[in-house]
Structures are given as structure tokens and as C-alpha cells.
Inverse folding.
């Protein structure tokens, strides 16, 4: 089989959801634990959308040999529509957004705006904003597709925590 070509990008600011970036978790019972995060991108964010779509198309174009000489017409992967592919009553953060899930077996570096390591998992949470380095690469097996590999993460600003809960500061405000 031909070797694959990978395409690496760094996103502009977007929102992180469901980060598992300090301790890996298996997505299904018996599965191999991975680090992962969902990246939420407003449908109005034309720059991030174009950057990700271009990386995916470049990955497809440079991997025809990997797929046996031509790129299959149907490939899994890519940006997904949060309004149609998620229950927005249960997960309202997906409404009005496109999303892509990124994962890796290698632990990502998680840094702050000054590129200093974030070591406290409470500082990088579902709902904060930042940038991600991503690597797109082809895969085949039961299905063919373009996967989104998780690189490093940079938190740029706080945001409303997703998934409920309040901070101790709110609970115990005098």
C-alpha cells in the first residue's frame, strides 16, 4: 500500500467541547484510549471553514495513490453540521455550528495565550476558546475517509462552561 500524505493546519480561534486532553479515554468499551476534543465552528466563520475544507481537499488530492489510484467518491470525515447531526435540545452548544472531532493516541500540549503549559485540567474546559493544530490524513478499512488528528491546543480566552455546572465562586458568592 502507498504511504499517505498528511496535511497540517493551525486553526483560527474556535470553541472547544468535550476535551479529553489530559487523560485519554476510549470512545467505546474495549476501545483504545485516545486524547480528543470536539471543535465547534460557527457557520458564519468563513475563514476557519475554508481553512479546514481546503486541508481536507488537499489531503484527498494528494492521496489518490493511497486509495489505489483514485480518490473514492464517498469518504467519511470532514466538517459536520451541528444542527442536523446532534440533538441540539440535549447539546445546545452545537446549534448554529459546524464541528469536527480531533483525536490522537499522543498527548497534546495544551498551552495558554503566552504559550505556557496549562497543567490544571480545570483551566482547559468544555466551552473555552482557542486554536488547534490539526493533521488530516487518509484511512481505509471498513470505510474510507479523511481523519482529523489532534496536535496541540492553545487556550486564548474563557467562555461559558458547556454541560452545566457552576463555579465555586458563584456558589459561594456573598
Amino acid at each position: 500500500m502507498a504511504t499517505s500524505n498528511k496535511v497540517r493546519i493551525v486553526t483560527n480561534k474556535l470553541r472547544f467541547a468535550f476535551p479529553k486532553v489530559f487523560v485519554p479515554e476510549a470512545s467505546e468499551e474495549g476501545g483504545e484510549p485516545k486524547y480528543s476534543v470536539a471543535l465547534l465552528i460557527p457557520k458564519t466563520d468563513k475563514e476557519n471553514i475554508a481553512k479546514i475544507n481546503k486541508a481536507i481537499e488537499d489531503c484527498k488530492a494528494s492521496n489518490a495513490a493511497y486509495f489505489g489510484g483514485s480518490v473514492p467518491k464517498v469518504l467519511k470525515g470532514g466538517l459536520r453540521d451541528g444542527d442536523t447531526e446532534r440533538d441540539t435540545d440535549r447539546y445546545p452548544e452545537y446549534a448554529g455550528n459546524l464541528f469536527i472531532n480531533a483525536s490522537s493516541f499522543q498527548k497534546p500540549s495544551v498551552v495558554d495565550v503566552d504559550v505556557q503549559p496549562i497543567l490544571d485540567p480545570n483551566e482547559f474546559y468544555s466551552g473555552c476558546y482557542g486554536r488547534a493544530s490539526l493533521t488530516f490524513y487518509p484511512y481505509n478499512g471498513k470505510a474510507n475517509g479523511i481523519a482529523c488528528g489532534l496536535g496541540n491546543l492553545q487556550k486564548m480566552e474563557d467562555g461559558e462552561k458547556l454541560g452545566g455546572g457552576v463555579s465555586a465562586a458563584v456558589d459561594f458568592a456573598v
Notes: Residues 21 and 35 are 5 Å apart (CA to CA). The helical segments are 46-61, 82-85, 168-171.
